[in-house]
Amino acid sequence: MPPSNSNNLSADGAVVDDAADVSKALRRRNTSATCGSDDSDSSDHAPPPSVASAQSSASSSPNLTPTSSVVNLTLKEAEKTTDKREKRRLSQLSQSAAFRKEVEVDARIKYEFGGPVGVTFLMAFFPALMLYMYICLLRQSGRLANPFDAALWEDGLPHVMPTMFAAKLYLGFSAFQVLTAMTLPGIVVKGLPVPSLGGRQLEYLCNGVATWYVDLAILAVVITTGVFDMADVIDNVGPIMSVAILTSFLITIVTYSVSVVKGTTHRMSGSLPYDMFMGAVLNPRIGKLDLKMWSEIRVPWKILFLISLSAAVKDHEMNAEIALEQGLPSTMDFMGLSLPIIRTSAPILFMLLAHTLYVNACMKGEECIPTTWDIFYEKWGYMLIYWNMAGVPFSYCYSTVYLSNRAAAGDPISHSAGFTAFLFVALLAAYYVWDTANSQKNRFRMQERGTYVERRTFPQLPWGTLKNPTYIVTRHGNKLLTGGWWGVARKIHYTADLVMALSWGLITGFESPIPYFYFTFFVTVLTHRVSRDMEHCKDKYGEDWDRYTKEVPYIFIPFVF
Ligand code: NDP
């Protein structure tokens, strides 16, 4: 966000110079909200000493609540703009009860994940767990070995040490993704009004599809020319993962430090580990590139896809060599064309399909992301940085790594045609529900806000956009969808996502528990997200939410749960 040169009103009524000062002012406003009266609920944490002292300085200021300070800021924004429509929007926003509610929620600091102690543990635990799992996959045939056995680490650590080659791959890929994100064409969509920016709406360039097609074109050239051996990716997952872990720590520290130095911090608790974990800055940007959205969309899923593509290429190369030794043909005739015979095993192809569907969905529906909770509310700290830059790509890939290791060891996983077909059908059916459920709700919300853009990105599935759906009108102003999948169960898209996650495990068989990590972990993540979201919606919509839950009583599976 480029700093504004015009003046704004701070929480204590003083005029401040730029966005950084506004952020500082809001920080003080937030601390007073944390420890203050009616905004905090009983589960909010007691303020640490640094917060308490900030509170006492804030309380000596004129008696402005967090809401009134943001309203002042919003009015100031309205004064500043020369665009008449924007002026009207901001003036209306400053009067809106719904926006005041958003301001309250945005200001509230509440310890999650066990507070400072819990997050410190998580920051150390996740990298250790990922290294352990990978070493077990690679060196223990997928068996869960004793993590306290020194021999396990002595044997495994050399296989996960960062290398220059791994650094070049990971950092080169990330830099290329920054470049394409900044330069390729796409649609521009607006986010939700940001309370800490006085209701301003940030713009997001959604060119994910263009970047994805460029990636695919480059990969097609790389694979057909052999200029780079794609198998190198799957053979170096351990070192690449370590580079990713180190990079995410570095980005966390740099982002935190820069935000503190520039004074662009937001909703700070005063606990260093907690603020490192949850993040210090809400909308980190390089020019127009929103780093939080970039890391969420452009890095994890594409790396996951690359790992599976690499495993598929390696498996094909190995099987093609064997086929050649056996005198089998390497090409087949198809409508007069001589096409290469793909010799990748069905389970590895399954993982490639699963990851392709996921990455493609993220790219084609990218315009729905700017209004999500992660972008609107969560800050860019260790939680999002680590998870997107290292956690998702290198822990959701265990099924692929396991299948690839087994194939390389000459003991490939295979199933009956019936079981394999069943899993393919289950994956595609779950994908359909997941894609269309997400799309129905997101498009409904976009239509409601007047930001809907019709897209033709592949594949547009039937029932992805609802025509004249039923809904509940809330006092908040937002409508709650009760039509389409959203009338069947409140979180049916989570159920579909979980079915896909389970299928990623089932395709590896039952000899190793590690490929089921993603499913197990995902159940925990989504359970946490459901309770957090239900709490958030109840808080936001009050009795209307109760009405909605009566109308759509099931959460995950209709008539069951
Ligand atoms: P949701 O898509 O369920 O979004 C929740 C928000 O939607 C609510 O806060 C509310 O926001 C709005 N909402 C809820 N009910 C309704 C309704 N009936 N009508 C209209 N709006 C409603 O959750 P997530 O953002 O967590 O998940 C999005 C997708 O991402 C899911 O499919 C999930 O499975 C997937 N996901 C995948 C992860 C992975 O690692 N693979 C991790 C996390 C998510 P409001 O009213 O404020 O608009």
From TrEMBL:
Record keywords: Endoplasmic reticulum, Lipid biosynthesis, Lipid metabolism, Membrane, NADP, Oxidoreductase, Steroid biosynthesis, Steroid metabolism, Sterol biosynthesis, Sterol metabolism, Transmembrane, Transmembrane helix
Transmembrane residue ranges: 117-135, 169-192, 204-228, 240-261, 334-359, 380-401, 413-434
Regarding the membrane, this protein is recorded as: Multi-pass membrane protein
- Region annotation Disordered: residue ranges? 20-69
The alphabetized list of GO BP terms reads: ergosterol biosynthetic process
Q: Name one GO molecular function term.
A: Delta24(24-1) sterol reductase activity
Q: Does the keyword Magnesium apply?
A: no
E.C. number(s) listed in UniProt: 1.3.1.71
PROSITE patterns, from UniProt? STEROL_REDUCT_2 (PS01018)
Quote the biased-composition stretches of kind Low complexity, using this chain's numbering: 51-69
InterPro entries cross-referenced by the UniProt entry: ERG24_DHCR-like, Sterol_reductase_CS
Query: Where in the cell is the protein located?
Result: Endoplasmic reticulum membrane
Any keyword Membrane?
Answer: yes
Q: Write down the chemical reaction(s) this protein catalyses.
A: ergosterol + NADP(+) = ergosta-5,7,22,24(28)-tetraen-3beta-ol + NADPH + H(+)
Task: Give me the Gene Ontology terms describing cellular component.
Answer: endoplasmic reticulum membrane
Query: What sort of enzyme, by top EC class, is this?
Result: oxidoreductase
What Pfam families does the database record attribute to this sequence?
ERG4_ERG24 (PF01222)
Which pathway does it serve? Steroid metabolism; ergosterol biosynthesis
The record's similarity note reads: Belongs to the ERG4/ERG24 family.
Which protein is depicted? Delta(24(24(1)))-sterol reductase
Source organism of the structure: Pseudictyota dubia
